[in-house]
Task: inverse folding
């Protein structure tokens, strides 16, 4: 859908309009709620404990310490107390912990988001549930349905494999659904307990990077068709979305799955891919809607890590503070995979709310290698 841009829009300050436009016929985000585990640790307090898990006794810890110091993370929340991780003997035990903690956090996030939206569990027509840090059948959403009182005819879409991009992709798929279901209510639930995938006695750089960067959490987002959102819907509205798969990049990011569970794959070439291709695709997406990078007033960017955030800023030629919300989230809670963009969106909605009528862009990248763009209007 192309959004008309008027002459007044062109001459307005970047990211803002002179007057609030009429409501868009589409998807309005009515609530976002993050749930974090109670076990919060300063980054400095985790370094040696993670070294005990990942490195052999007496091994050199210089690289580990450099990675923790340069990750841009000040604190993180973990699904379990740090001293309990050494007792997880195999993937089965780690996955059981994911299930137990994931249900608690998922229930907290989903209940909080519905309450914020002024809705109850029976109002939910579609529940998309995404996680890449554990597996279950029945899935988390099915197990939560009875606990929360969701309708027996609720549509459920459990998603595995999208990783960090799933927060943006999940919102895009909610938008797809709501365009065809006027008056509907759709919910995205993301649950990522990254710490439970950390590999014991694995001194690979990818595992050490993951141990320095990732945190745990859950988030829920409630979206409604604009015609049913109500006059006090806080927004923003979803205007358009775009997905992109980058060819010959399947090995850059994801899991190598074996007897010990999910062994992380993080290739050092990811920032280069971002610099070479991401800006071109993003600019093309905006151009299709009569917009440029300069028109975007609010950036909701997944905090993939310092090198990725720097690559995004470089390829888009963004001012220094454009991605401040992503850097702040990374520092406060680490990279929470698919949860992070929802955590950032909640923070933006609760703090300096963007000017009504201004443009925003929510974006993330993940295994594939892929990107997902969601054009927003406040």
Result:
């Amino acid at each position: 859908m192309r959004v008309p841009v008027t002459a007044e829009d062109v001459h307005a300050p970047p990211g803002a309009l002179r007057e609030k436009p009429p409501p868009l016929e589409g998807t309005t985000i009515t609530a976002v709620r993050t749930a974090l585990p109670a076990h919060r640790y300063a980054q400095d307090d985790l370094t040696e404990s993670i070294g005990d898990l990942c490195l052999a006794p007496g091994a050199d810890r210089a690289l580990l310490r450099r990675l923790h110091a340069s990750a841009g993370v000040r604190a993180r929340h973990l699904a379990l107390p740090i001293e309990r991780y050494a007792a997880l003997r195999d993937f089965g035990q780690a996955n059981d912990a994911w299930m137990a903690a994931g249900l608690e956090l998922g229930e907290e996030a989903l209940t909080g988001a519905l309450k914020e939206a002024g809705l109850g569990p029976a109002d939910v027509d579609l529940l998309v549930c995404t996680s890449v840090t554990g597996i279950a059948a029945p899935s988390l959403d099915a197990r939560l349905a009875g606990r929360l009182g969701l309708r027996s005819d609720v549509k459920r879409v459990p998603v595995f494999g999208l990783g960090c991009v799933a927060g943006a992709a999940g919102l895009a798929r909610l938008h797809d659904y709501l365009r065809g279901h006027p008056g509907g209510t759709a919910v995205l639930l993301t649950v990522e307990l990254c710490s439970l995938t950390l590999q014991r006695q694995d001194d690979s750089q990818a595992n050490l990077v993951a141990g320095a960067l990732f945190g745990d959490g859950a988030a829920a987002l409630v979206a409604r068709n604009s015609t049913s959102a109500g006059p006090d819907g806080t927004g923003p509205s979803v205007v358009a979305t775009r997905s992109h798969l980058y060819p010959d990049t399947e090995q850059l990011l994801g899991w190598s799955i074996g007897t010990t569970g999910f062994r992380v794959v993080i290739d050092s070439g990811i920032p280069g891919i971002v610099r070479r291709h991401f800006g071109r695709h993003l600019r093309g997406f905006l151009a299709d809607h009569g917009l440029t990078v300069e028109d975007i007033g609010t950036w909701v960017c997944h905090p993939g890590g310092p090198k990725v955030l720097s690559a995004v800023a470089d390829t888009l030629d963004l001012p220094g503070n454009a991605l401040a919300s992503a850097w702040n989230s990374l520092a406060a809670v680490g990279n929470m995979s698919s949860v992070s963009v929802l955590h950032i969106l909640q923070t933006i909605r609760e703090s300096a709310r963007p000017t009504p009528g201004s443009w925003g862009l929510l974006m993330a990248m993940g295994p594939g290698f892929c990107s997902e763009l969601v054009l927003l209007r406040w």
About this structure: The two ends are 17 Å apart (CA to CA).
